[in-house]
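User: Hi! I'm working on a homework problem where we have to compare a predicted structure to a textbook description. Could you give me the structure for the chain below?
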Amino acid sequence: MSQLFFRRLLYPLPLWLFALSAFADKPEFGTHDVATVFFIDKSDDHNRVDYGLRLDAACRPVGEEAFFPYWREFEDAPPVRTHALGWWEYTAYGVTDQGPTAVPGEYRVKLKRLPRPIVIVISRTQGGRCATVARSLVAGVADAEVTSAFAKLRTAIHTVEYVEIHARNPHTGAILSERLTN
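Assistant: Happy to help. Predicted structure tokens:
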């Protein structure tokens, strides 16, 4: 059968039917993975998008898409639920580019809606676990340690009014914040 036939067949189905598959995809975490490198809160509810990193026993990224977003739902908790993003949510929270840098132990990422690249520094703790620190330019500090971001949404037209990045200055310990608008 032709692709046109399938498009016409699927067109009248409500979008929520496609969204159901996203809730079934609960992210699986390996022994060495870092579940949350940083996260994005949003203004319309208490849920957030977390970004994880898949790592092997030597704390090296696994696969071509080692860095990945997923939902962490706090509303109606406990329990806190996690699930994959829906296909339409990748437009706002997806990753456009990722991969190792020339420096061992560093992994670069670029998010679709965040205008600055992020470098993830991967290390091993004294206890032997893999650990990460996300670094980017925040409030004039080139190697600020990114902890989270907040997206202020315009609910009437489903766009972003601004994104506020939260970080820490690794040299002074000062809390940093910068608001980015379109």
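For your comparison, note the following. The chain has one domain: 21-181. Residues 55 and 62 are 5 Å apart (CA to CA). Good luck with the assignment!
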